[in-house]
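Hey, I'm writing a tutorial for new members on how sequence and structure tokens pair up, and I'd like a real worked example in the thread rather than a made-up one. If someone can provide the structure for the chain below, I'll link this post from the tutorial.
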Amino acid sequence: MTTNDSPVLRVAGRPVGRYVTRPELPARLSPRPYLHPVTTLAGTAVTELSPVDHIHHLGVGVAVPDVEGHNFWGGRTYVREQGPTELDNHGAQRHSSFQLRDPDGFVEELRWVASGAELLRERRTVAATELTDSAWALDFTFSLTNVTGGLLSIGSPATNGRPGAAYGGFFWRARKERQAPDVFTPDREGESEVHGSRADWLALAGANWTLVFAGATEQTRRDPWFVRTAEYPGVGSSLAYDERLPIEPGDTVVRRVVTVVADGRLGHDEATALVRKAVSQ
């Protein structure tokens, strides 16, 4: 079922993702549109929504913990020399309109608002395409434009003093299972090796599903991967890894991540082949 607030993505006629544009969430979760559930073509769920371990993790979307001091990630804010702290600094991403809506994708305009002011305007383009009879691709592009009269900068807990916590940007909260998923890139394996690395693609393999994430532009490929498997399964592309990302007034930051969603556990060769097909489409 498709409503004004929850369009359903379809691949070859099959529903593979529901997009919630106006979620009713408390302010401390940094309300924002998200995709959930996202499934494989066989119907296996590969996302989680507000899990107990991190209730502010909302399926697939864009979340940033520090936009000029405002929290668009949800939960506590990491404060230098103080640690995670509850602050009344949460922002919200507000759906403005769809410029395009089709069964296989959409183009959306959003406003990033905090403390009564609009900081960023976003154009989000999402498309779902069939790759094989057991794999499809989610093509996710977001463009953030500084609509204030001054400089804005994007940060992360890492840039604020917490090593290794450079989350913020495109983020996929995956399905938690009894065993932690495997994670690998073309030349590395395991959370400790893959986290913080730069790689053309990164695979997360669960019990009977695999997600393969790929930066689809040169700038996106420069961003290191944020990876968690042991504590919880999640993958992001870091906008602010070791330094803040400045955005001048009127300037725009663009990132594009293409994710292969496959049934079964893929190996390196299968992941490589599907990513190449997905990014070239």
